[in-house]
Amino acid sequence: MDLGIAGRTALVCAASKGLGRGCAEALAAEGVNVVIVARTAETLEATAAAIRAATGVDVKAVACDITTPEGRAAALAACPQPDILVNNAGGPPTGDFRQFTHDDWIRALESNMLTPIELIRATIDGMIGRGFGRVVNITSSAVKAPIDVLGLSNGARSGLTGFVAGLARKVAPQGVTINNLLPGMFDTDRIVATIAAQAKAQDIPVEEARRRRIASIPAGRFGTPDEFGRACAFLCSTHAGYITGQNWLIDGGSYPGTF
């Protein structure tokens, strides 16, 4: 299927590895020129080189902390008018909410709620003016089914979800869609930290905690960044113009509810 977005430009955050990289690779495979952002320059440049070699599209790498004003300014200087914005940032620490300080909450909100909102604010009017725009926020399955050790993520990402629900309806008439992708257990660095926290909380070996997690997934495996990225690319396509304000849960069937 031709997604109809060849020649478009995308700004993809936290894209040096994991789900962000999966999204950047999938968009580039469709002919989208990408600006990728992450904090570690060496890893980011290696990813940029790999995407260029695989796809031939224009790839710019901006090493910065997207959760800071300076980082956002650097990213937007390199990509001031993206047609596609993929918001993504590392999840906040795991733990018992009793241990979280006020500063912990502020950092979580800055990273997983306020930074995406700032980037949307900086880019959405350009999308409206061009009559086409796609914003995809990578959040978490915890928005749908909260995870006890992810209190900071549960709260911050749910705040972003509520904000998006209102804005998506306002900009839909101008050809701009905003959706959220809710990953379950994917084979990334984040899963390592989550499983380690759960193993500690349950006082069991990490290997046993991993086995239990896989056993709890109806698909019988963790997801891959590649398949996640392809879902993102579809939401950014011309075929997805009637999908907006939605929360796409990608979790291998783990969520047990009907709705």
List keywords for this structure.
259 residues, alpha/beta, seven-stranded parallel beta sheet, 47% helix, globular
Describe this structure in words.
- Helix content is 47%, strand content 14%.
- The protein is α/β, with parallel strands linked by helices and 259 residues long.
- Helix 6 packs across helix 7.
- The protein contains eight helices and seven strands.
- The protein has a seven-stranded parallel beta sheet, sandwiched between helices.
- It starts with 8 loop residues before the first strand and ends in a 9-residue tail after the last strand.
Low-confidence stretches: none
Helical stretch tally: 8
The chain-level structural class is alpha/beta
- What would you report as the Rg, rounded to the nearest angstrom? 18 Å
Order of helices and strands: EHEHEHEHEHEHHHE
Amino- and carboxy-terminal Cα gap: 29 Å
Overall average residue pLDDT = 94
* Strand order, largest beta sheet: 3-2-1-4-5-6-7
What coarse outline follows from CA principal-axis ratios?
globular
Portion in helices: 40-55%
Largest sheet: 7 strands, parallel
Tally of extended strands?
A: 7
Strand content: 5-15%
